[in-house]
Amino acid sequence: MKQIAVISGKGGTGKTVVTGSFAALAKNKVMVDCDVDAADLHLLLHPEVKERHEFRSGQTAVIDKKLCKKCGKCASVCRFGAIKSDYTIERFSCEGCALCSHICPRGAIRMEENVAGEWFVSDTQYGPFVHAKLGIAEENSGKLVAKIRQIAKELAQKQNLEYVIIDGPPGIGCPVIASLSGVDCALVVTEPTLSGLHDAKRVMEVVTYFNIPIKLVVNKYDLNPLMTGKIEEFCRSLNVPVIGKIAFDKTVVKALVEGTTVIEYAECAASNEVKKIWEDLQ
Amino acid sequence: MIISVASGKGGTGKTTVAVNLALSLKNIQFIDCDVEEPNAHIFLKPRIAGEKKANIPVPEVDEAKCTYCGKCREVCAYHAIAVLPGSDGKKGSVLIFPHLCHGCGACSLLCPQGAIKEVNKEIGAIEIGEKGNMQFIHGRLNIGEAMSPPLIRQVKEYINSTRIVIIDAPPGTSCPVITAVKESDFCMLVTEPTPFGLNDLILAVEVLRKLQIPFGVVINRSDIGDGKVEDYCANEHIPVLMKIPFSREIAVSYSEGVPIVEKDASYQDKFINLYLNICGIKNEANSRH
Ligand code: SF4
Ligand code: SF4
Ligand code: SF4
Ligand code: SF4
After folding, report:
1. For ligand 4, what atom is nearest to the CA of residue B118?
2. Average pLDDT over residues B109-123
């Protein structure tokens, strides 16, 4: 079994469009959407949810008004400014560290477990799909990513699937790190812009930091061929193979609007290039 | 006034809108809170005058005082401490996993022996600079560092609300975004008219409603895609503040790090209008209260 994570650093480079196309191309795989913050892959794969699970993680302080003597101790120790002047908790600021509950001389503070999201195992016409929805304004996306990756891996082992294909989140922080741990290859999808290059560099440093092999794809490469050249040059200097260059193609957006992958939507330059990229990854 | 610019989905043009708005107005303080992938500096090219390391406090145990009682392990909500008690005359040990530590201070405060002191761990850097009369600040998270909210909080300590503060927020709907947009007077959500854009816009709207921050929408590449984002905004009574049609010229100048207003000066008026639009909505909201 091989695990491939598609990441980008910068958002909106076409990562999910590429991952979605792999769903149409790869046989024997499980798809995983690790962009739990703003999941989009389901819009292409149209899952039929088979299993739905609560994701419990983290906690929030709650002050019992009847017991509280307004001594102010809790507010003085909270480093996250989560205790308001009327001794109620500002939910979105509370990190759930529980320090206030240990400090309160009246035992007035209890910690409540958060339901931080949901995760699903679904069927799609492309095979099994594991995905999740982080609750609005929740944290611990890294843990939720780790959870669904573990489920996907078990599923792949049980059903003898060849690939786990992961749509990763943008950025370089905790959910990205969780998406990368233990994968066999990271595919970086970038665009030929200064920001794309800047962010790809940073995310590639993260991948290298975890000792994972990298391959790179430049999406919309013809929007700025010069910049594409710079990205290729940069990749050469790191010995990172550039395995595809996808041209800017309005067909891609049209396929998206129809809710399908560009592979199935039409035979076009973009779909041919993505096919080539998938062949290279195998 | 603090205006944040966010988007559920990355790559919709959030930084473009933030940067061009900033360049069209005066007395701006620009704060890039997308500390995982800070990009605004590419377009603004500020002169950086100073850098400050950003640290979080992590515990350090004085083994001479420690009795291996295990209290610190017990109170750490993030499992960042393990205590191995001593046995057979062998000394125990306390292990600290700094990448799991949130710097809450519980262990040092609650250790009965006073054996824990806090030392700084670097998580990133904050750079301060200027572009003309614009003040510029951004944070940069170190590679391999998982937690961006503490750095975002430290970047936001520089907010000077006597200026018009523009915050470029990270994408998404979870902790980093919340940390960045909290306390804003207004938030602009930048989206694109595709199913992905709409899906992520709906999530971002939920976030702002929960935080009770007034907001409006900017539709980028407004002419490629479908009309569902506008339909959604109309149904939900969300003001569409501005529409930016796709143009290859804008896309190319973006790719080179050139802001739209520097390429096409007529856009300056459009961004000033965007600002006036926001002020109008703010005033209306205030008078209703
Ligand atoms: S420490 Fe306890 S009693 Fe004191 S203000 Fe906080 S909740 Fe109330
Ligand atoms: S749990 Fe921690 S973050 Fe939450 S209110 Fe208590 S001290 Fe503050
Ligand atoms: S609480 Fe203090 S004394 Fe107890 S194990 Fe931790 S450091 Fe040692
Ligand atoms: S400071 Fe808080 S999070 Fe860090 S080790 Fe101590 S108790 Fe755990």
Report:
1. 1
2. 95
What 8-state DSSP symbol labels residue A97? -
* pLDDT at A93 (0 to 100): 87
Check residue B100 and give its pLDDT.
86
Burial degree of B193 (CB within 10 A; 0-12, 13-18, 19+): buried
d(CA A119, CA A131): 6
Mean pLDDT on A136-151: 86
List pLDDT tens digits, range A240-277: 999 999 998 888 888 888 889 889 888 888 899 999 99
Q: Give me the CATH code for the A2-46+125-281 domain, please.
A: 3.40.50.300
Closest CA to B170 of B14, B280, B34: B34
Mean pLDDT, range B232-251, rounded to an integer: 92
Residues near A35 by beta carbon (within 8 Å), at least 6 away in sequence: A16, A41, A167, A168, A169, A170, A175
What is the predicted ipTM?
0.79
- Please spell the DSSP secondary structure of B96-164, one letter per residue: E-GGG-----HHHHH-TT--EEEEEEEEEEEEEEEETTEEEEEEEEPTT----HHHHHHHHTT--TTSE
What is the average per-residue pLDDT within B256-285? 90
Q: What is the DSSP string of A173-219?
A: SHHHHHHHTT-SEEEEEE-SSHHHHHHHHHHHHHHHHTT--EEEEEE
Cβ-nearest to B255 among A169, A177, A192? A192
Contact A250 B78 (CB under 8 A): no
The residue ranges of every structural domain in chain A are 2-46+125-281, 58-115
| Distance of CA B116 from the midpoint of ligand 1 (Å) | 25
Query: Could you give the count of Cα atoms lying within 13 Å of A49 in the half-sphere of its Cβ?
Result: 10
| pLDDT digits 0-9 by tens, A56-79 | 888 999 999 999 999 999 999 999
Q: How far is B178 from chain A (nearest CA, A)?
A: 6
Average pLDDT in the B26-30 region?
Answer: 95
Residue with the two structure tokens 């998938």: A278
Nearest to B231 by CA among B207, B197, B279, B273: B197
- Partner residue facing B146 (CB), from A80, A102, A173: A173
- pLDDT above 70 covers a percentage of chain B that reads 99
On the question of pLDDT at B164 being above 70, the answer is: yes
Residue A47 DSSP SS3: coil
Structure tokens belonging to residue A27: 């046989």
Give nearest CA residue, ligand 4 atom 4.
Answer: B101
**Domains recognised in chain B with CATH numbers:** 2-27+163-288 (3.40.50.300), 55-121 (3.30.70.20)
Q: A58-115 is classed in which CATH architecture?
A: 2-Layer Sandwich (3.30)
